[in-house]
Structures are given as C-alpha cells and as structure tokens.
Amino acid sequence: MEVEYDDSGWQGRAKGQTNPEEMLEDNPQKTIQECLEKFLTPDYIMEPGIFTQLKRYFQSGGSPEEVISMLSENYKAVAQMANLLAEWLILAGVKVTEVQAMVENHLKEMILKSFDPKKADTIFTEEGETPDWLTEMIDHYTWRSLIYRLAEEYPDCLMLNFTIKLISDAGFQSEITSISTAAQQIEVFSRVLKTSIVKFLNNPDDVHGAIQECARMVCHGQHTYVYSQVLIQVLSQEQKGGFNMKRLSQEIIKYALQNNQNVTPITMALNGSAVYPQACQALTSMLTRNTLNPADITVLFRNYSGSDPPPIDLIRNPQFLELLVDALFRSGVKINPEHKPKYMFLLAYASAVIDQPAKKRPMTERMLNKEELKSTIQAIEKAHTICNVDQGSTELIAELQTLYNCIKYPVVGVGVIRWIENVVMEPSYFKLSTDSCPTHLAVLDEVAAVHPTLQQQILFLLIRLFESKQDELEILVQLEMKKMILDRMVNLLTRGCVVPVLRYIKQCCAIEDTDISLIRYFVTEVLETITHPYSPEFVQLFLPMVENEEITGTMRGEGDNDPVSEFIVHCKAHYTTV
Questions:
Q1: How far is CA 118 from CA 2, 264, 507, in A?
Q2: How far is CA 185 from CA 212, 221, 223, 224, 440, in A?
Q3: Which ranges in 425-454 belong to alpha helices (H)?
Q4: β partners of residue 357
Q5: Measured between alpha carbons, how far is 466 from 483 in angstroms, rounded to an integer?
Q6: How far apart are CA 141 and CA 176, in angstroms?
Q7: How far apart are CA 249 and CA 230, in angstroms?
Q8: Exposed, middle or buried by CB within 10 Å (0-12, 13-18, 19+), for 371?
Q9: pLDDT tens digits for 493-519?
Q10: Does the UniProt entry include the keyword Zinc (predicted)?
Q11: To 10 degrees, what angle do helices 475-494 and 498-511 make?
C-alpha cells in the first residue's frame, strides 16, 4: 500500500496529535489482508517496519499462529547467508577489509539499481522521526558517498535532501562536491561555500585548483551565483584579506564568461555603477557584446580623464581588461590610430591609479594617486609598438632592452605574455626558428623573474607548448624543443614556482605519455640547480622521480657521490617519506 508523504514527519508530530498506528483500524479485515501480503514477501521479518505491521495485525484481530507460520516459511536468510559467506572468505585467507569492501560495494550497486525515491520519502511518515539507522549510516564514508550519488540522481527526493543536511550538520560538508546536491538547501550550500573559500585562502600553492572548484560551485545557477557574489562582495570590503576576496570574485566572473554565462547585469548591479549612468551604459554595452567599440571607449575615456572620475573598480572588470589587453597586444587586431591612446589610457588607469578614501575627509571623498599613470601609459605604448611589428627572433633582439624596461610594469607583463602566446602557438613557429632558445621564450623568463604573480600564466603557456603536436618537425628536433621548454620550466622552478611545476612533471610520469628521456633530463637539471634544505612537499613530489630506477638508473654511480644518490640519502636521513 502506498502511503502519501506527509511533511509532519520531518518536524515531529504536533503536541497532542494522535499517532495513526495507535488508532484502531476502521476496516480490520482489509488491514489483516494488507499485513498478510507483506508477511508473504521473502525475509519480511528482517524489515525495519515489522513491529509496526505486527501491531496493526494483532490490533485488527489477526491470528498469531498464522503470522508465525508465514514469517518463518518466507524466511530465506539472505542477510545471514551473506554474513556466513563473508566469514568463510575470511577463514580462507581473504583480508577483512577486502571482504567488507566486497559486501559494501555489492550493496551499493543493489541500492543504486533499485532505489525508489517515493518509497524513501515514506520512511519519515512511517517512523515519525529520523530513524536511528540513518544517523548511524552517515557516520561511515561508504554510505555517505552513496547518499551523494543518489542525491545527484534524485534531487527532488525529500529523504535524501534531509540526509544531506544531516551530513552537513555532522561536519562532513567538505565531502559534498556535487554542486547540484549542495545547491538544494541554503544551509548546506553556505557551509560548502565557506569550506571552498577557506581552501582558496589556505592553499597558496594550488590557488588555480581552489579557484576552479569554488567558481564551478558558485556558477551552478543564478541563485547560487547571486548569493555567493553578494557574500564575497561584503567580505571584500574587509581591510584584512579583502583583496583576496576581490580577486576570488573576479576569477568567478572570468570562469562564468568562459562557460558562456552572461553575468554582466549581476556584476554591474553589485559594483554600484548605477550611480554613474554614462560609464555604466558604455561598459555594459561592451561587456554584453564581449567586444570593444570606439564610441563606448570614448565615453569611458571622457569620464575617467575628467575632474571627477567614477571609481576605478568599474573598469577593473576582468572581462573588460581582457578585451583591452587583447586589443593592444594580440597580433592582427587593428585599432583606429585616433582612438588608440584612449585604449592605452584606460588600461593604464585601471592598473596604475590607486583609489582610496582620503584621510581626515568624509568617506564619500576619494584620493587618487596618479603618480605612475603617465609612465605606465608610456610603457604600454612602447611595448605595443614592439609587439605589433611583425619581426622574428633576430630583429627582436635589438628591442630587448626597451622591452625589458617596459616589462617592469605588471600590465605590460600581462600583455607581453598574451603577445608571445599568440606568436609561439603558430604551427610554423618552431619550424622556422633556428635558435636553441627562441627570443620570445627568453622574454618569458624575464617576465617570470620580475612578476611572480604571472608565473602560473607562463606555466600554462609552457604546458600547452610542451603538449602541442609538432608533427612537421623531425623526432630529434621535437625532443630538443621539448628539452628547451623543460629548461623554461626549471627556470620557473628556480623563481619560486616549485610545486606547480613538479606537480605537472609528476602527472607526466603517472600518465606515461612522455618520453622517459625528457623526464630524466628534467630531473638532471633540477638536481644540478637545487640544494638543501628542502620543504617536505618538495621532497614528497620530487623524491619518487629520483628514486625511479627507470628514470635515474643510468645516472647513478657505484658509490653515493653522484647527485642522485646524495639527494636520496639526504632525504631519507632528514625527512619522513610516505
């Protein structure tokens, strides 16, 4: 018999409300028949509701002899047989943990196949409160992971949503990686969001991964996006750590745009741009179309070059800045010479001017520090001129000193990376290059040295180059090219980008799609570069590669005097390795 769901089961019964199980049945014969049908099912004596049904049966005048006969005849002992088989397997020498995993995995498969959300919801109407077995169930990761999977498949199941809340209340919110599961309830989502933000703040070595995880969750839907961005916006106003929250907000916007989600109206509503209607309208127009146009650029230029400019935060929009950098540094983009200074002014203004509340003045007044604005515009202009001339590595050498002086400005560093990416990703670039290290990649080394915050971008570009198909090159030439890129990665490592580089090389080892000679070359170069003391994380990532006989077997001598043996001996003596 199907029992309709009654939400009173979630909150407990109202005071004085009569439990239906304690009421006498209106139709005793019908009740007895219903109970007998259940007693006929295999192993019904093992069901959680057995006592409730027995009570109904006896209150309606059912025969004790008949129910005893039915329950005993239909007892198949499936659960007991499973336990017996498990004991036999253990006696036969199988590990207890393996047997437990077999049983649990089979049960999970059976539950996934036969789960009925409607029947699951009736659990609370029949029990009237949270069942004890459910509370015990969420103490074990195996069953929590099952709940997560079921909640993804059945997002409307009330029993599963309630269980997810129980899991979150129990402190396991960091396990809830399914966004659709977390987004069902604001309390659960808030806890998961908090955990994700804390991970972003506490993992400087894996900022990109933490940002991606947080952004993926925030961008699940409009409601999660608005709620999260409002919270992050409030946190970004804090003096301590507020800039981190601002960066996270901007990275989330960037992620949303990459996934073709139009978040411009929400962004503009949150940044207070409505107070400046001209700037707001011009910026909204360009962001919505994802393209710059001279008319709107002119409006922004007029606003920001005036005596009372809007706040800088309006044009410090990641999408707008990306468009400006692309327009000025990507090869092939044509800008009307009449408007080009306006593009440069806005990019320099957004990156160089400091906008802060004035001391000893009303909070509404702002003090603008424009000391570096003029020099930043000049640097952008010089770099733009160099980057937009179609020249090879040889011709570029003459301009290197000028370019290096310009690269000292962070915004120019970003633009130069964009320009180099556009140049070196051309399929014919390495085919035409004869240098052991092309000048464009040498420029990347300079950017990495001057701007540590841009090292991650440089690493992503080097990874793309390393994994790119260069079928037009001979095999030996391809290997030499990849060695040269590994040299650039070693340079990044020496500049402080240690963990991301090692994680990537470790990934190459695990996937086994990289020539072992290249891994050997990388290990050799790193060993020649480093010296102790080492961080535990460095040892954890690098030591397995050094110990790998296939990688370093030919690099070892008879004694312990070679770099490989010395590194291994030192690590074994000073570090606890897993």
A1: 9, 40, 44
A2: 22, 13, 11, 10, 51
A3: 429-432, 439-450
A4: 366
A5: 9
A6: 11
A7: 10
A8: exposed
A9: 999 899 999 999 999 888 878 888 999
A10: no
A11: 150
Which of these, 311, 335, 312, lies nearest to 323 by C-alpha position? Answer: 335
The two three-digit tokens of residue 368, written as one number: 């603008």
Contact 19, 128 (CB under 8 A): yes
DSSP 8-state class, residue 532: S
- Rounded Cα distance between 387 and 330, Å, is 8
Spell out the SS3 assignment of 4-21: CCCCHHHHCCCCCCCCHH
Q: Which amino acid is at 193?
A: L
Evaluate whether 223 touches 263 at the Cβ level (below 8 Å): no
Indicate yes or no: pTM above 0.85.
no
- Residue located via tokens 């040889």: 394
Burial of 349 (0-12, 13-18, 19+ CB in 10 A): buried
What DSSP string runs through 138-198? Answer: TTSHHHHHHHHHHHHH-TT-HHHHHHHHHHHHTT-GGG---HHHHTT-HHHHHHHHHHHHH
Query: Is there a contact between 189 and 199 (Cβ–Cβ < 8 Å)?
Result: no
Spatial CB neighbours of 301, under 8 Å, sequence gap ≥ 6: 342, 345, 346
* Whole-number pLDDT of residue 509: 87
Q: How many CB atoms lie within 10 A of CB 132?
A: 10
d(CA 461, CA 163): 44
Phi and psi for 558 in degrees, rounded to 5? -75, -35
Asked whether the bond before 533 is cis by omega within 30 degrees of 0, the reply is yes
Residue 352, pLDDT above cutoff 50 = yes
**Rounded Cα–Cα distance for residues 333 and 324 (Å):** 11
Q: Please, what is the Cα angle at 403 between 402 and 408, to 5 degrees?
A: 105
Kindly give the pairing relationship between strand 354-357 and strand 366-369: antiparallel
What mean pLDDT do residues 558-564 have? 75
Distance CA 517, CA 538 (A): 22
DSSP state of 309: P
**H or E stretch including 357?**
strand 354-357
Q: For a pLDDT cut of 90, what percent of the chain falls above it? A: 21
Place of tokens 């239906």: 20
- 447 confidence band (pLDDT: 50, 70, 90): very high
514 contacts: CB under 8 Å, gap ≥ 6 = 508
505 with 512: CB under 8 angstroms?
no
CA dihedral sign, ordered 198, 447, 311, 297: negative
d(CA 20, CA 28): 14
- Looking at the DSSP bridge assignments, the partners of residue 557 are none
pLDDT band at 23 (very low <50, low <70, confident <90, very high): very low
Q: Which long-range contacts (CB under 8 A, 24 or more apart) does 229-236 make?
A: 229/266, 229/267, 229/270, 230/270, 231/193, 232/197, 233/270
Given this model, what pLDDT does residue 381 score? 93
Tell me, rounded to whole angstroms, the distance of Cα 85 from its chain centroid.
Answer: 43
Rg (CA), the chain: 33
